[in-house]
Design a protein that fits this description.
By secondary structure, this protein is α/β, with parallel strands linked by helices. Helix content is about 45%, strand content about 20%. It is built from nine helices and eleven strands. Helix 2 packs across helix 6 and helix 8 packs across helix 9.
């Protein structure tokens, strides 16, 4: 199995620790929904599997008396522990509170019903699967982010570019780019933290257009959409800043920029000014 397949499979795997009768029934339904299930009754084996990244979600089954909540505390202490869901027969308020304090993401009871238990576990697995795929994309994007096909390099924390997939990953959020947006991003990354003039961006976006003013008018909606994509990422540390009459800078918020423009040109109408 390739590394990529292994990463994706781990995100699709439910590890049941201490499976009782209900846990076994749940396992069958989870498998029918297309996910992979592994089971163990050994705390040592559970620690080993989690340490090796072999699970996307852990179901800690307390119903059969083969394990205890203490194992959740042990697993949460590992360097990388997936979400833990607890299944209990007769949960007490004290036990639920203790589990939540440890850091489990969900606490299920047999009284919730088999369908509800399976649905909630499926939701957690879907999130784990998406996270595993995003992590794989980040790994694939890293070499491209360091050196793109145009020679642009990036050691920019929180910002990764996969030019082959036309994908920009901002703070772990993948953003799809148009071909023109990709050309603009590569130029901004290559020049960061220095300013790129309007003319330079128009030339990269529309290399066959000889009328500069026309190229600048064409550029306006593309750069506006690209900037909105940056702004759509919650708590992003990056923005494309516009400097009136000069151009744009790929800027880490709060970091200094370098503005060295040989000649001034007028900004496109309607551009936001950064003071």
């Amino acid at each position: 199995m390739s590394t990529q397949e292994s990463v994706i499979k781990s995100g699709e795997t439910l590890l049941i620790v201490g499976a009782g009768e209900t846990g076994n029934l749940v396992a069958r339904h989870i498998t029918e929904r297309g996910y992979h299930v592994e089971a163990t009754t050994s705390p040592r084996d559970a620690v080993s599997r989690v340490s090796n990244g072999e699970a996307g979600v852990i179901l800690l089954d307390l119903t059969a008396g083969q394990t205890s909540l203490d194992l959740a505390d042990t697993l949460m202490g590992l360097p990388s522990c997936p979400p833990i869901v607890v299944l209990d027969k007769d949960p007490t308020v004290e036990r639920v509170v203790a589990a939540l304090r440890i850091g489990v993401v969900d606490y299920l009871s047999i009284g919730d019903g088999e369908s509800e238990i399976v649905d909630r576990l499926t939701t957690h697995l879907a999130k784990a699967q998406a996270a595993a795929r995003a992590a794989q994309l980040r790994r694939e994007a890293a070499p491209r982010a360091r050196e793109s096909s145009n020679g642009a390099t990036s050691g920019l924390t929180g910002l990764e570019l996969n030019a082959a997939r036309r994908m920009l990953i901002i703070e772990d959020v993948p953003i799809l780019l148009s071909s023109i947006e990709l050309n603009l991003v590569e130029l901004l990354i290559r020049r960061a933290p220095s300013l790129v003039t309007y003319e330079e961006m128009a030339q990269v976006a529309f290399p066959t257009t000889t009328d500069v003013e026309h190229a600048l008018r064409l550029l306006r909606p593309h750069i506006a959409r690209l900037r909105r994509k940056f702004e759509s990422v919650h708590n992003t540390r990056w923005r494309i800043a516009n400097f009136r009459g000069q151009g744009y800078v790929l800027q880490r918020i709060g970091a200094p920029v370098s503005i060295n423009v040989p000649k001034r040109i007028q900004p496109a109408r309607g551009e936001r000014v950064v003071e």
